[in-house]
Amino acid sequence: AHFDLRKEAAYALFHLLHDERMAGSILTRELAIEFVGLLRAPDPQVVDMALTVVERVLGTLEGAQRLVEEADGIDALEQLVYSAAANAEMAARASFLVDKYYGE
Description:
With 104 residues, the protein is an all-alpha fold. It has seven helices and no strands. The model has no long low-confidence stretch (mean pLDDT 87).
C-alpha cells in the first residue's frame, strides 16, 4: 500500500513537471532524491518515469550530479544497466546518464 501511494504521488508530480511554470517551483532537491529512490522500484513503468525525471534533474538542477551520487543514484543507474529485469531501452538510457554525467 505504501508503494502504491508513492507511485500515485510520483505520477502526479511527473505530470506537473511537464509544465515549465510548475517545474521550477516543484523540482527540489528532496523531490529529486525521491525519484532517484524510485529507480529501484519493482514496477518498470515507475522506473521509466524515474529515469525521465532523473535525466531532467541532472540537466537542470544545480548540484544535481553530486545530489544523485549522494542518493546512491549511480549505483541505481548501474543496476539498471546490468539488470536482466530492465528492458534494453531503460538499460541504454541509464548507461547514457552514467556516461554523460559521471564519465564511466
